[in-house]
Amino acid sequence: MKTKDRIIHGALTLFNENGERSVTTNHIAAHLEISPGNLYYHFRNKEEIISGIFDNYAKELKTRFQPMAEDQQSNMPSVQVMLSYLDSIFELMWNYRFFYANLPDILSRDDALKLKYTKAQQALNENLIAIMHSFRDSGLIDLEDDELQALTKTLHLVASCWINYQTALLSDNEITEAVIYQGMLQMLNVVRPMATEQGRKQILELEEHYKGRL
What we know:
Blueprint (H helix, E strand, L loop, with lengths): L2 H16 L6 H8 L3 H7 L3 H19 L5 H5 L3 H18 L1 H5 L1 H6 L2 H27 L7 H25 L7 H15 L5 H15 L3
Helix pairs in contact: 1-2, 1-4, 4-9, 6-11, 6-12, 9-10, 10-11, 11-12
Protein name: TetR family transcriptional regulator
InterPro entries: Homeodomain-like_sf, HTH-type_Tx_Regulator, HTH_TetR, TetR
GO molecular function, one term: DNA binding
């Protein structure tokens, strides 16, 4: 692995374990057993490292939430399709939890990163709406277009803010996998009242799946 990539991955580990605010570039260099000068050769400051981490995150967002092709989705049970998207949400929230936990502060320090974040979220929202349309076409939900867009925005909001909200509530500020699984259940609880009979059965199945992870 190239040194630049090692710095990004090492920083991500430290940020997730200790919180971004408490980690300095010297901490990152020491963790990787490289000199601070070697680190500064690749990144001028911590903000550039965070921006590099975000670029990887944005690529994953784009890849994981591409709407499936109709023939691909038709060959998979709807519950499996939903599970694959929910698992992607979980993995992103867990793997980049420092970013979710301290998002407003991080974006307030870097206008260029804020612009990249905004563009990534706009693209994600378009993909999420397309995914929700496919669920409607599969008979899992029965909503008008404006209702579908409102539901998508609510789910997007829960996923984006769940860790930040839980961090504020937890006395030790430690985000565990169980905390994120609770977020998955919260999203399913939002969708269940709006689902068709067929969709409700599958959502209940998914709820049992995630309850087993707590």
